[in-house]
Sequence to fold (490 residues):
Amino acid sequence: MVRLGIVWLILLLVACDRTGPDAIVFAVATAPSVLDPRLAGDAASERINALLYDRLVSIDRQGRAQPAMAVWRAVDDRHFEFTLRPGRAVFSDGRLPDATDVVATYRSVLDKALGSPHAGALAHIDAITAVSPDKIDVRLSRPDPMLPSRLTVGIVPASLADSARLARRPTGSGAFEFVRWRENGGLLLRRRTDAQLVAIEPVADPTMRVLKLLRGEADLLQNDLPSELYDYLRDQQAVAVEQRPGTTFAYLGFNLADPVLSNRDVRAAIAHAIDRDAIIRYLFGGRAQKAEAVLRPGHWAGNDALKAYQFDPDLARQYLARAGFGTHWPLHLSYKTSTDPFRLRIAHVFKDQLADVGIELDIASYDWGTFFGDIKAGRFQLYSLAWVGVNTPDILRYAFHSDSRPPGGANRGNYHSRDVDDLLDAAATLEPGKARPLYAAAQRQIHDDIVYVPLWYESNIAAMRTVAGYRPGHDGNYLALGAVRRADER
Fold:
């Protein structure tokens, strides 16, 4: 019935061919909030910043460092030299990035006054200096053979490193340059290879994004649609749909400082009360895969042997009873989410599944800025989010180390485990072969402690009309905008 209603609305409102300016319009669920790569912490901002700023190092699908702006050599495990590549792109103001820009970028990231969420992973940098216009010297307070994989922050001009201007008017050396903000909260970008304009247009409602695509008001969508809309788009001859497995990891987060949720039995009850298979089947239409950890199976630092928390309502009730809750003492919890309709549908499924075992869930939905602000500030009991762009095991320190509690990182649930801290600290000093079992052990402990309920890896799906050449990145990035073109172009 829901699908028929949506289809009827689409058929009623779809107009003729696309009209408007020459810009390729990319309709997205959420606009970026900050265009300074040193400060970006939300997915929308990270993805747009990756278009605007080049960086020293990129990370491949297996989580390994690859040269981007620079190549490097390890003098020893506490000393690295980076050499900027001669063919690197210029900043959008025409100046060639040099070692002073790199040094200014990373010194500002390490400056507590800036409040960069990337500072925690780089705190062991003792000194970063410009040896020559093209060479940078990095010295560390502890061994770190994998330092290059951590140097992925976009490089900003040294002249603007102390300015707040970048957050709204970026100057980078990425594949795109900033043109202007749009009245609807989106932005206009220009591709530097051919001056093709790309408009990033935020449209919170998924049905309206589809309508815009079919009416010719948008050319491209990616992700954040309910299953029935993907099914509908696949039936449209004028629309091409691309789907790839993704690394975007969705989870149900707990505030471990909460007096109720600090009890592992309560968290175990919630984990066993959620039927992930049903959600994936009916809400995602099979376009997701169950997950047990942030790092996807096959990642060099992952742990593929984690045992799932199976859907088991009877066991969930037993855990609740052991925690002191039941018919005469019901458990009430608050769950925060965004106003995105699909996320709200998931929230209501959670509510029904938890109610079945005796947990009453109150859903509170907010616009994205308010919601994400509350999560970063720790103002929640339960919430659900997804980690995007997960490529390296640095995510484990960023999300679970005791030193990564905000603002020094994203340990928003206030998790503290000396064992996990020690494992992550030790792994960070070792080469990959020796670090792998330590990362696996840390993930096993995090899983056993039920720091969150792992949910699923969401597939990356793009729908196109009038354009071609776009393939969604494995981590949900927008880098394929560098290749997208009008469908009638060669």
Remarks:
- The CA atoms of residues 342 and 477 lie 20 Å apart.
- The first strand starts at residue 24 and ends at 28.
- The mean pLDDT is 91.
